[in-house]
Amino acid sequence: GSDCLDDIIPCAESGIVAFKTFLHEAPPGRKEEFIGLTAPNTGDQYELMEKVAQTGVMIGFHAENNDMINKNITRLRSEGKTSPIYHGRSRPPVAEIETTSKILLFAEKTGAKVEICHITTPEAVELVNEAKCKGVYAIAETCPHYLFLNEDALNKFSVFAKVNPPLRSEEERQGMW
């Protein structure tokens, strides 16, 4: 994360095989758990990637837009929309797509090797493929629940289907194939 930039090179020199960071702030009441794991603003993200690029080690990112998430959470809560389905609404597909695009641009400019973790949208997959064609070292990863479940699972399983990034529409799930 952006609060531990001075630790990146020593960690790489000690044999670490990869880094991972979240692009959102630590959840309320959980700041201690997220020390060294977050880079919520664009300037810090770029600086982090410059530093990691110096090591040749890969860095994985959750493609989340901190500003969009916070704004949506505030709006949805003020409207009384707090059921599990609104967790996904606070993290719309465009947030993943925009952040994936930004991370891939930063990877191109810094030479960082990147992994976009838990991709849930066909558009983000396409962005990774396009970046690879331009010579960017980028990989994408998803999880079984994004391939086999859609946001309707929240109606059936409630909070047990609440994941980050959230489950998407059936159309987006199908597009992942």
TrEMBL record:
Record PANTHER family: ALLANTOINASE
Protein name from the UniProt record: Amidohydrolase-related domain-containing protein
Molecular function via GO: allantoinase activity
Matching InterPro entries: DHOase/Allantoinase_Hydrolase (IPR050138), Metal_Hydrolase (IPR032466)
GO CC annotation, single: cytoplasm
Gene3D superfamilies reported for this sequence: Metal-dependent hydrolases
Alphabetical GO biological process terms: purine nucleobase catabolic process
